[in-house]
Amino acid sequence: MWKKFSILIFNNKTWVITLQYMLISCIILSIVILIDTGTLSAEQYIPSIFLTKVGLATTILSALAGALLSMTVFTFSTIMTIVNFYSSNYTASTIDDFVKSDIVLKVLGIFIGGFFYAVTALLFMRETYEHDYVIAGSVGVVYALVCVAFFVRFVQQILYGVQSTNLIKDIFEEALELIRVEVQARQKFADTTPQVAALEVPLRAHATGYVSAIHYEELAKAIRPFDGVVKIHTRIGQFTVEGAVIATLYAEKEQDELHTGDYFVIQDAKIPAIDYKYHTSQLIDITLKSLPPGKADLNNAIHCIRKLSVLMAELLQADGQFVSAGKEANNLIYTVPSTEEELYYAYNQIIPAAENEISVMLALFDGFYTMKRAASPHNAEAVEQFATHVYKRVEPNFRDTLDKKYLQQTFEK
Cβ neighbours of residue 183 under 8 Å, at least 6 residues apart? Predict the structure, then answer.
């Protein structure tokens, strides 16, 4: 249930955070109005420095409303500029990450909420209260200072994010955390094989899109009364079409058909928080953007390849073809991609684009060496075979004697 709620929040994150700060503004506004109108007697608890006359409060709120509206427009323009920068230099997925980042949505939310507070508070500044003291203006000043702090944080985030090294570092760390969780699961629950059963029931996709999440515990609970096992053919982040077989139920007796929509989340958007391939694909895309005929920043491409190699080395530590979905879902089994498949889909776009760049190829074979050292014996052998395949493909492209020499040395490590 909590997982479904988290997915709902993620899919509506822009609205949730914006409305959250508007709600906070409404709560502050309600308390201020109750105090200023005398409905809530709290003047004796408020320091005199926070009390101002209605005229001054009106002036403060009027200036604040105009300033916050201007800052909202300016912030939105800045966001569009950064989106254009990311589009030109990085990938579409990094734009999604930036637009949905907490600080961007919080800044917009707090500015919109502040404008709402200032304009609404002005409605309650009556002439009959002209000689009374109110706190609406002082609270508005405090709110403005908070807005400034958020804007400074927003600027710092932009200055940090436009540096490619920092962006790659963040992508790498997010992917590494997810891969370590995946490796731990493969090592703990590997070598599980589907049992032979009297009935094999195909489970078909209820929609077309990406498999963004799988509710393992709920699916395991649903099939437990039938003494069944489900073998999941699809993987998180994989694209499927309506009607395609995404899993198979092995059961000993007849049972009602399972509706995959209750257990498989299929939608147009991937969920980065649970899909390590989402992040590795970002590194691949940035690498391709950095290779000719793009902006031809070979050092950036090499940096991405090194980071990708470390991630693959971490992933290839675990063996196993079938893995159960966990202790509480041991009647669910999913297929682990082979080492060759992992390597092929990680590098099949990079190799054709970089096969004539000796510096990139050297970094690539250095990466294969890193993988062989970290991988299990079975996976290390597969890496060796894949590296040999790549070497035979790219070696004829280099005619310079030194290029051939150092390429061979790096390959034979």
Answer: 314, 315, 317, 318
Residue of 20, 155, 161 lying closest to 98 (CA atoms): 161
pLDDT tier for residue 4 given thresholds of 50, 70 and 90: low
Q: How far apart are CA 114 and CA 145, in angstroms?
A: 11
Can you tell me which residue has the tokens 């902006």?
295
What is the per-residue pLDDT for 324? 57
Q: Where are the beta strands (DSSP E) in 258-350?
A: 264-267, 322-324, 332-335
Integer angstrom CA distances of residue 284 from 35, 91, 205, 288, 308: 57, 10, 28, 6, 8
pLDDT score at 213: 83
* SS3 call for 298: helix
Residues with Cβ < 8 Å from 32, sequence gap 6 or more? 121, 135, 136, 139
Query: Could you give phi then psi for residue 158, rounded to 5 degrees?
Result: -65, -45
Q: Are 362 and 412 in contact (CB under 8 A)?
A: no
Cα angle at 229 between 226 and 231, to 5 degrees? 145
Residue with tokens 């190829």: 361
Phi, psi of 110 (to 5 degrees): -75, -35
Residue 322 and residue 221: Cα distance in Å, rounded?
A: 20
Side by side, which strands form the sheet with 209-214? Answer: 239-240, 209-214, 264-267
Distance, in Å, from the CA atom of 52 to the CA atom of 55, rounded to the nearest integer, reads: 8
Task: Determine the Cα–Cα distance for residues 113 and 344; give it in Å rounded to an integer.
Answer: 49
Indicate if the alpha-carbon torsion angle 21, 111, 75, 141 is positive or negative.
negative
Tell me the average pLDDT across 19-24. Answer: 89
- Of 50 and 298, the structure prediction assigns the larger pLDDT to 298
Dihedral sign for Cα atoms in the order 51, 56, 62, 68: negative
Terminal-to-terminal C-alpha distance of the chain: 50
CB 363 within 8 A of CB 305: yes
Q: Which residues contact 377 (CB under 8 A, 6 or more apart)?
A: none
pLDDT higher than 70, residue 193? no
Going by pLDDT thresholds of 50, 70 and 90, the confidence category of residue 183 is confident
Is the previous residue joined to 293 through a cis bond, with omega within 30 degrees of 0?
yes
For the ranges 33-37, 98-102, 254-258, 388-392, which has the lowest average pLDDT? 254-258
pTM score, whole prediction: 0.84
**What is the widest separation between alpha-carbon atoms in the chain?**
92
